[in-house]
Structure formats: structure tokens, C-alpha cells
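step 4 of 6: structure.
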Amino acid sequence: GEDVEQSLFLSVREGDSSVINCTYTDSSSTYLYWYKQEPGAGLQLLTYIFSNMDMKQDQRLTVLLNKKDKHLSLRIADTQTGDSAIYFCAGSYIPTFGRGTSLIVHP
Amino acid sequence: DTGVSQDPRHKITKRGQNVTFRCDPISEHNRLYWYRQTLGQGPEFLTYFQNEAQLEKSRLLSDRFSAERPKGSFSTLEIQRTEQGDSAMYLCASSLVGIDTQYFGPGTRLTVL
């Protein structure tokens, strides 16, 4: 498994971009994932990036991977109130999850 | 709905009772995982199966916990002699060997009184 660190909270205004950052220790994962968790629900797979890629864009979501620094980020463009949730990054196989980043979107 | 399903969604029990949860994975997925998530924390790995074989167990999985996947399809997680510290969300996920993208179910919320 790997250790994962994320900021606990991020607050943005509706319509702004959000950037959620993640640092990890184990670089052996083939894929790196972003999951979203709403209150009382399971984890929803948002997007993923193959470990030999630097960037992946998926509609409003942009994932950036810096393997040298072991840093992964998720950018959400035009953030909406429905994006308010906890976001987790994770590696593949048996991931270790951090505490996640709680995104709060203000109208 | 062809996603991962879990039953029940909520369970309230008294300390000392036994509880059993069920997980039905996505039908073609051969790997199945159990996690536990307490309030304010991320999911913690408990165990996983490949087909019917239980391949890995976390040290978190005390001897009061047992998981089965007898026919390589659905799985059950049993907790014997529940304690208040067992109160948590129990999450199940499934994936395909070689792809490893895990899809999670909605979870079972356990409250031990």
C-alpha cells in the first residue's frame, strides 16, 4: 500500500475552478484514481490516469500527474454546488486512502 | 442497475450480537474487496477475494470478523460479538483482474449500541 496526503478542506465559489492536490509515496501503481464521496454514500469513481501519462482531461475534470514529485492533482472547472463532497485519490491494486479533501462550494 | 450492491444499507444492533452483510459485485468482476470507513477517515482495507479465494487480509480483520465468497460471486462479511468500535460504514468494491479499477457499492452503515 501507499501513504497518501491531501489537504482536508477546500472552499470555492460556484463557477470558480477547484484544484485538489494529492501526494503519494508508492510509485508502483499502474493507474491513479480520483473518487468522490457524498454524505452517507459509497465512493464514486470520477476519473483515472495511467501512470505513464502527464495529463488527462475528461469534460470538466483535468488530472495532472507529476511522477517525479509523486504529486497528483484534480482540477474541476466551473465548480457547481453539486460538486460539494469528499474527494479521495488512490493508487491501484489495494489502495491506501487518506482522509480525503472535503470540497465546499459556496453559491 | 449493474453496479455493486450491498445489503442491508443500515444495520443497528446491540453490543455482543452477530451481524452479517452481503455484497453483490458487478457480474463479470472476479475481484471483490471489503473496506471499513469510520467518520472523518478514508476507507481502510479489510480483505479481498479473487474468485472464491481470499487472497489477502488486513491486520484490522480481527478473529471476530470473517468473510466468505463461496461461489466466486456474492460475498458475506460477518462480525461476531459486535463492539461499539465496530460502528462504521462497511464498503464493498469489485474489479477485474488485470485492470484493478475498483467500483464501490453504496455501503452498509453499522451502528452498535
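step 5 of 6: annotate
 - Chain B has no helices and eleven strands.
 - Chain B touches chain A through 22 residues (CB under 8 Å).
step 6 of 6: archive
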